[in-house]
UniProtKB/TrEMBL annotation, chain A:
Organism: Sagittula salina
Record protein name field: Sugar ABC transporter permease
Keywords (A to Z) from UniProt: Cell membrane, Membrane, Transmembrane, Transmembrane helix, Transport
Topology of this chain in the membrane: Multi-pass membrane protein
Top-level taxon in the UniProt lineage: Bacteria
GO biological process: transmembrane transport
UniProtKB/TrEMBL annotation, chain B:
GO cellular component terms attached to this protein's record: periplasmic space
Protein's name according to its UniProt entry: Probable sugar-binding periplasmic protein
InterPro entries per record: Bact_solute-bd_prot1 (IPR050490), SBP (IPR006059)
Region forming the signal peptide: 1-24
Cellular localisation: Periplasm
Keyword Signal: yes
Keyword annotations of the record: Signal, Transport
Family: Belongs to the bacterial solute-binding protein 1 family.
Job description of the protein: Part of a binding-protein-dependent transport system for a sugar.
TrEMBL record, chain C:
Family matches, as Gene3D superfamilies: MetI-like
Superkingdom per UniProt: Bacteria
Signal peptide feature range: none
Name by which UniProt lists this protein: Carbohydrate ABC transporter permease
GO CC annotation terms, alphabetical: plasma membrane
UniProt GO BP: transmembrane transport
UniProt entry keywords in alphabetical sequence: Membrane, Transmembrane, Transmembrane helix, Transport
Length: 297, 417, 292
């Protein structure tokens, strides 16, 4: 009898306690994430300027948005930036992880050196790189002082090249983090598989290409998602490094959205650009989430 | 009570009613004078208030000429917890007044006779619907040229009085291998130059027609093309490394004698004074040649937000009165490089450039040649101002030629209205 | 967790090894360059910076900029330095990290060991919340905080950071617990252990590595946040806001040496966390989070 009652109680407990534990998170998420997204969606259809207003104007803000040159610049810049940033970070991260996995003396020292930029805030990263890349005081100036007169590195002042300086600073900040994800992946691979392959006479190159890298698939996926969302959200770095300039050559969607919402008093257009950004993120995330959730049957 | 309610005022008023008001008499001040001399100057006001038994709660948020502070303000107002006083510029004050978020300073204003001593062009921003809503701290003017006297003397250049002389002088400097015009490539700095250039091309009438009334014909006129041509000429006198440079580094170029001129508002003077330079001896200050007595100004003001308790209102109005007092106006403006926001302040404490600025301001006020700065949000609302920034900066960076810039200007202003 | 006894995967000759070390050191220089620039310039007197070589070591070494940044630089109307803001940041970061990590651990536990219909969808929704750009939530968040009476206070900031931190902390713990043998949990259940008891006695003791990862991640993000701090900080502004106020003077001489010293001071806690806990970081990542 007692046993049954207890079992019954446990079943009921099992039913409601986990859900109860989860429910504050769900409630917070529904309000603070999805509620606010819906709110932004709504604002994008209103004539909000300085503060939210609730006068419906239909798709006018979207029409205006896509008619703005600055928005197109921002979207194209995001394409360039995200493409290069993700590729270079992944390449550097993977290379460093593989090299660091070769029983390197001093790994314990090198790893924090690669990782520490992730700990710094945008003001630090931005101002430091702004200095280093400024032709008047930075590397170019230093090289001139050291006698290499013809050395030129003025990308940050060049409308065409400035976006690449943002890539450099961003890669500096996160590639070490990507390295540690790959390193973790490498360390997680069962050595027996590698040994077997080596006995079969596989060369180093083909060992990595055919066995190790495919096994790192989850790490690639995680790295891609983290990098992609950092790229889309990039705001701080631009402000600290170039302020969106020269001219508006390094504007990204996140800086565009902030400036229209808060400094240009065009909250409606700002909300419309936010909705487009969210849709982009959703488009990137959905396949990942799908894969992630299917795997764990 | 709060009167002149705008469209969304009811909602905001409801929010404010729930706000917990300051218990002891104190003022909370949101501003972006966060560092160095100007923050120290603001401390004068703080101490003055403390002497009157009013506490000062400091809320500094720096960044982007007040952009970060304005974001913070929006969050505070939305949360129903606005600060007592907020540093603000030009049309922003009017926009907040239109939202019904600001308080009323009429009592102290009439008691102290502000109407008589504050220039009308400033009152345009400090008053809304005939009521005082903000206390102006200073008047900056933007159409100044700062010049290194030693460089000019060495090259035998006299202080230019016309635009052509100005250009000729810069040609001479260029030949000598120095940089003629020190400039930092940030949108607002380019727009600051624009203020002076527009006045030099078309005078006050054209300035007002094109940039205050936003008349499409004036915006698309040949005169406007002339404006952009002159901007392009100036671009030719700037060094290659200008992009993104802070304005004070540009000032430093003039101070060190690397460059001859800088077109910048009177806040630049502080840099020269800090470097131990003497106006008239080491450096010159004069209006952009061709300005013809016109002064383009911007004015920092403290907008007073709606507070409900009587005690808070009293503290707020005491603060407004202190800001307008001649002692504070002198103490603050001698540090900041600007001139007092009232015309009846004694000039003795100001240096040669400051006195000249005060004379120019008074004269321009008399003759109706005092205009709001385009580049600093005193000619138009934020959306239009930024639309103008976009075009001017794209043109200055070589993205547009002058004819395209004129077209783009008309489009940009139209779509921002 | 067998980091130490990993065999070298590749058999390498001397030339290759020199090459490998070469590349690793070049990258180390790349990563260290900005820190080097900041450190050396924070130890120079101002004229040496404005007139000299950015890369050069100081001619005159001075700790004055550090002292100024910490205790006497003008921040707002008062010359307090960064010191008073440091405490604000600590008071905000510690509870925010603790709460969001704890909630993340419980969520991860529920989502993997007490699965129910729709749990995957809930996890998906939670995960998506990691990616929301924070600029868009400012205004609605302000109005919610205002209604809760938490605007402009440290509890308000803690709430905001917890809410937007749950996504990542849940992700970390869920992936970590997913590979933990469910049989052990079942066995404990049959032995009569309850929901919290199983969590406390079985899962928590093995959660060390992932907790390190999660704490480092949350600590860094929350410590470095500027947007929320400036908007909702009120009179308890965190250190990033103060640093921004220090370096963004609109007029006056820019004291770069003080700015750099301030920047390093503001970054010190996160740097310490990375350097001290960095080696557990890879271990923690390895122990679950990247295995999908």
């Amino acid at each position: 009898m007692a046993h049954l009652a207890k079992a019954d109680f446990r079943t009921r407990l099992q039913e409601w306690l986990p859900k109860l534990v989860l429910s504050p998170s769900i409630a917070a998420m529904l309000v603070f994430v999805y509620g606010f997204i819906l709110y932004t969606l709504y604002l994008s259809f209103t004539d909000s300027r300085m503060l939210p207003s609730y006068d419906w104007v239909g798709v006018e803000n979207y029409v205006k948005l896509w008619g703005l040159r600055a928005w197109w610049t921002a979207v194209i810049n995001l394409g360039i930036f995200a493409g290069l940033y993700i590729t270079i970070c992944t390449a550097i991260g993977l290379t460093l992880a593989i090299l660091l996995d070769q029983k390197i003396r001093g790994e314990g020292t090198l790893r924090p050196i690669y990782l520490y930029p992730m700990a710094l805030s945008f003001i630090v990263t931005g101002t430091a790189w702004k200095w280093i890349m400024d032709p008047g005081i930075g590397i170019e100036h230093t090289m001139h002082l050291w006698g290499w007169e013809s050395f030129q590195f003025n990308w940050i002042k060049d409308r065409e090249m400035a976006i690449y300086t943002v890539v450099i600073a961003a890669v500096w900040q996160t590639s070490g983090f990507v390295m540690s994800m790959f390193l973790a992946g490498l360390r997680g691979i069962d050595n027996e598989i590698l040994k077997a392959a080596q006995i079969d006479g596989a060369s180093n190159w083909s060992l990595y290409r055919r066995i190790v890298i495919p096994l790192l698939r989850p790490a690639f996926l995680s790295a891609f998602v983290i990098l992609a969302h950092l790229a889309v959200k990039s705001y701080d770095l631009i402000i600290a490094l170039t302020g969106g300039g020269p001219g508006r050559a390094t504007e990204l969607p996140a800086t565009f959205m902030y400036s229209y919402t808060f400094t240009r008093n065009s909250m409606g257009i700002g909300a419309a650009s936010a909705v487009i950004m969210l849709m982009t993120i959703a488009a990137i995330m959905t396949p990942y989430l799908y894969a992630e959730l299917k795997e764990k049957k | 009570m709060r009167g002149y309610l705008g469209r969304k005022a009811a909602a905001i008023a409801a929010l404010m009613a729930t706000t917990s008001m300051a218990q002891a008499a104190e003022v909370e001040v949101l501003h972006w004078w966060t560092a160095g001399g100007e923050a120290a100057a603001l401390n004068v006001l703080k101490e003055k208030l403390e002497g009157q038994g009013i506490g000062w709660v400091d809320m500094p948020v720096a960044g982007g000429g007040g952009e970060a502070a304005m974001t913070t303000l929006r969050a505070r107002v939305t949360a129903g917890d606005p600060p007592t006083a907020v540093q603000m510029l030009g049309f922003d004050i009017q926009d907040w007044a239109a939202e019904g978020a600001l308080g009323n300073l009429d009592a102290i204003a009439s008691e102290e006779g502000w109407d008589a001593v504050v220039p009308a062009a400033l009152q345009r921003f400090s008053k809304y619907d005939g009521h005082w809503i903000a206390a102006p701290v200073n008047v900056h003017s933007t159409n100044w040229v700062w010049a290194n006297k030693a460089v000019l003397d060495e090259l035998g250049i006299a202080q230019p009085t016309t635009w052509d002389e100005f250009i000729a002088a810069m040609e001479t400097v260029k030949e000598s291998g120095k940089t003629p015009l020190a400039h930092g490539g940030q949108a607002w700095q380019e727009a600051t130059i624009l203020d002076g250039v527009v006045l030099s091309v078309g005078g006050v009438d054209f300035y007002n027609k094109a940039f205050v009334e936003l008349d499409p014909e004036a915006l698309g006129s040949d005169r406007m093309k002339e404006v952009f041509d002159r901007m392009a000429t100036l671009r030719g006198f700037v060094d290659d490394n200008f992009s993104g440079r802070d304005w004070n580094l540009a000032s430093a170029m003039v101070i060190n004698g690397e460059a001859a001129f800088q077109i910048m508002g009177d806040w630049a003077k502080g840099e020269f004074l800090n470097a131990g330079k003497v106006p008239g001896e080491d450096f010159l200050c004069f209006r952009v040649p061709g300005s013809d007595g016109a002064v383009s100004f911007n004015s920092d003001q403290f907008a007073m937000f709606g507070v409900s308790s009587d005690e808070a209102k009293d503290a707020q109005s005491t603060m407004a009165g202190d800001i307008m007092s001649p002692e504070f106006q002198i103490a603050f403006n001698t540090v900041k490089g600007s001139v007092p926001a009232r015309t009846d302040v004694a000039k003795d404490d100001f240096d040669a450039c400051g006195q000249k600025g005060m004379d120019d301001l008074a004269a321009a006020n008399e003759s109706g040649k005092l205009v709001g700065s385009i580049g600093h949000g005193h000619a138009n609302r934020a959306a239009v101002k930024n639309a103008i920034y976009d075009v001017v900066t794209a043109h200055f960076n070589g993205e547009y030629d002058s004819a395209t810039a004129v077209e783009e200007l008309v489009n940009a202003v139209e779509s921002a209205m | 967790m067998a980091v130490a006894d990993q065999d070298t995967a590749v058999r390498t000759g001397l030339v290759t090894r020199v090459f490998i070390y070469g590349i690793l050191l070049v990258f180390a220089a790349f990563y260290l360059l900005p820190l080097f620039v900041m450190l050396t310039n924070s130890l120079k007197p101002l004229p040496e910076i404005t007139g000299g070589n950015m890369m050069a070591l100081p001619d005159t070494w001075t700790f004055e900029p550090w002292r100024q940044a910490w205790s006497s630089a003008q921040i707002g109307v008062e010359p307090t330095g960064l010191k008073p803001y440091f405490m604000n940041s600590i008071l905000m970061v510690v509870p925010a990290v603790a709460i969001s990590t704890m909630i993340g651990a419980l969520n991860g536990y529920v989502l993997t060991k007490w699965s129910f219909r729709g749990d995957k969808i809930i996890f998906g929704l939670l995960l998506f919340s990691c990616f929301i750009p924070f600029q868009i939530v400012l205004i609605p968040m302000a109005s919610v905080l205002g209604k809760l009476g938490m605007a402009g206070s440290i509890p308000g900031l803690v709430l905001v950071h917890v809410v937007y931190g749950i996504g990542f902390s849940t992700l970390y713990y869920r992936n970590y617990y997913a590979v933990f043998p469910t049989e052990l949990v079942r066995a404990a259940m049959i032995d009569g252990a309850g929901f919290f008891r199983i969590f406390w006695r079985i899962l928590l003791p093995v959660s060390g590595p992932i907790t390190v990862v999660c704490v480092i991640w949350q600590f860094t993000n929350i410590w470095n946040d500027f947007l929320f701090g400036a908007s909702f900080g009120g009179q308890t502004q965190p250190m990033t806001v103060a640093l921004n106020n220090l370096v963004q003077s609109s007029t006056g001489v820019k004291e770069y040496n003080v700015h750099f010293a301030g920047a390093i001071l503001a970054a010190l806690p996160t740097l310490l966390v990375y350097i001290v806990a960095g080696r557990y970081f890879v271990r923690g990542l390895m122990a679950g989070s990247v295995k999908g």
